[in-house]
Amino acid sequence: MNKIVNYVNNLFFGLPKTEENARLKDQLLDSMQSKYQEYLNQGLAEDVAFGKVAAEFGQMEELMPDYVPAETAAGQPAKEPSPRLQAYMNEFQAYQKKFSLMIGLGIFFCALGIFGTSFFADIAHNPELASFFFFIPVCIGVALFIVSGVKYSNLKQMILSLSRQENYQAYFDYFKDSTRLLHEKRQSYTEVGGFSAMHSERSSGDDMIGRIAISIMLLALIAFLILGFLFNLWHPGWLVFPVGGIFCAILFILFNK
Q1: Res. 57 pLDDT band, cuts 50 70 90
Q2: Which of 100, 84, 97, 99 is nearest to 158 (CA)?
Q3: Could you tell me which residues come within 8 angstroms of residue 151 by beta carbon, excluding any fewer than 6 positions away?
Q4: Of 206, 157, 211, which is closest to residue 182 (Cα–Cα)?
Q5: SS3 sequence, the chain?
Q6: What is the CB-side half-sphere exposure of residue 251 using CA atoms within 13 A?
Q7: Whose CA is closest to 154, among 47, 7, 81?
Q8: Is the N-terminal amide bond of 127 cis, ω within 30° of 0?
């Protein structure tokens, strides 16, 4: 619970010591601690639970629209990050290589599942092994995606949150520049509250494409299971996955001209 207490204390650090702010602080602390404990009871790790709570309850700008950090109001942005913020940034930068490796391994295991299914169904004529060599690698690949993505997102969230509290501009620019290198042709930038905030011109469209692509692959998985268990067509049933991938590629091409 100390993480929650420290987080809330940092949120209210620059605010006037009024009864209203004290009441809001107590309410927020109780709500966040309750939600944090709920996530822990669900079996989530402490860091994962904390990241979900921090993202769910948002920042002071969302809780109190009139909130302006004391440093920002005075026009004096921080010149150096706090030791805590720097520690998170160092951890994030060290994790980036591991993150890329885990994503690559996740893709490898998913591909291994598809090719393993093809081999045992078509060449070895063993549908039981074909099913086994599909589910195990794919489950490992999906787990790698989830674990790496959650930690990456939580670290970034904490860095941006602390940077906002400390009015430290450099790390906002770091993430802005990193995103611009990846999406230079697809994003525009607007100045909001003294910070450079990114506005994606096509974020809603990209989200829709992502949801449709996920739906296509889930339908492919359902079709594969039905063909295998009900009709013993593990082969050529595995072909639904490359077909689903082709449909996803067509979808991306059509909506990303």
Answers
A1: low
A2: 84
A3: 47, 48, 95, 99
A4: 206
A5: CHHHHHHHHHHCCCCCCCHHHHHHHHHHHHHHHHHHHHHHHCCCCHHHHHHHHHHHHCCHHHHCCCCCCHHHHCCCCCCCCCHHHHHHHHHHHHHHHHHHHHHHHHHHHHHHHHHHHHHHHHHCCCHHHHHHHHHHHHHHHHHHHHHHHHHHHHHHHHHHHHHHHHCCCHHHHHHHHHHHHHHCCCEEEEEECCEEEEEECCHHHHHHHHHHHHHHHHHHHHHHHHHHHHHCCHHHHCCHHHHHHHHHHHHHHHHCC
A6: 19
A7: 47
A8: no
For the chain, what's the residue count?
257
Contact in structure between 138 and 110 (CB atoms under 8 Å): yes
Tokens of 142: 């999906």
Q: Are 138 and 118 in contact (CB under 8 A)?
A: no
Query: Using N-to-C axis directions, what is the helix angle for 127-166 and 170-183, rounded to 10°?
Result: 140
- Please indicate whether residue 37 or residue 64 has the higher confidence score (pLDDT): 37
Q: How many CB atoms lie within 10 A of CB 102?
A: 20
Q: Name which of 118, 107, 120, 112 is nearest 136 in CA terms.
A: 112
Residue owning tokens 């989530």: 44
pLDDT-based confidence at residue 199 (cuts at 50, 70, 90)? very low
Amino acid at 88: Y
- Tokens 């492919």 belong to 220
Judge contact between 163 and 172, C-beta under 8 A: yes
Tell me the C-alpha distance between 31 and 221, whole Å.
39
Give residue 170's identity as a one-letter amino acid code: A
pLDDT band for position 150 (cuts 50, 70, 90): confident
